[in-house]
Amino acid sequence: MPVATLVVPARSLQSGPIRVLIAFSGNVDDAQLGGCTRALEIFAACLARDAFSLAAPAREGESEAPPLRYRSSTQAIEALINSTGFDIRCMQVLRNLLLRELESDERLSSMVVTALADADVAGRTAVLPFPEEDTEETQYPAARDALGFHCVEEELADSWVRRCMVEFVQPLQMQDLERISIATDPWFDLLEGGGYAFPLGHPRETESVRGAVLQFDEYSVEISMMRFQASDMAWNALVNMLGMTPYQGTIKSLTFD
Question: 102: alpha, beta or left, given left = phi > 0 and alpha = psi -120 to 50?
C-alpha cells in the first residue's frame, strides 16, 4: 500500500468551508501537476452532483457557489471546498485519483483536511487508512438514506462488465435519457480515474472503461461499464447522484449486476 497519510476531521461534516492541503514530496513536474488538477476537477464535478452527500439534495439553482476552488504549486495544492454535508470518507476517493496521476507513490506525502468554520470539530482528527477487502464498506462513502427508490443487487456473473438498470415510474421521455447521461458522466470519469481502485488494485495498475447510457425498454435506462475494475462501493456515488432533486419521485428502482 502507498504511504500517503490522510488526516480528516473526526466526524463527518455537515456544513461550512473545508480546506484540503495536498503535500508533495519534492517538486512535481508540469505533467503530474496537470494530472492532479484534472483529478480535482473530476472530484469537484462529482461533489456538485451530490455523489458523496449525507444531506438532502439541494434544490436546483439553490446555490451558485462552486463546490471546489484550488491553487497549486510544484510542492503542494490547497483546495477549498464549499461543504454541503458530504461524507468525509470521500477524501479516500480524491487520494486515489491523485495517486493515479503521480509517477510514484512517494510523490504524495500527505493530505490534511481541516474544517474552517466548525469549532466543534477543530483539533479533533482521525487518520483514514487505505480501504482493504474487509474494510472497504466502512472506509468509502455510503449511499444516502431515504432516497425514494429501491436498490437491488443481483448475483454477479464472472465478468468485468457491470451495469445498473434504472427503472422509472412512468414511460421514459427523451429528456430523461439526456439528463441521466449528463448527470452520470462525472461518475464514469471517477471510475476511469481510479477513484475506487483500492482494494482491487493500485489506481495506476487498474483500468476501468466506461460503457454507455442507453434506453433498455419503455421504462428503463441501462448504465454500463465495459470494464469495472473498482470497489463495489463506487455504486454508492452513482446512487447518490441519481437521488438528486431532478429525479426524486421519478425513479422506481436501481438494479446492479
Answer: beta
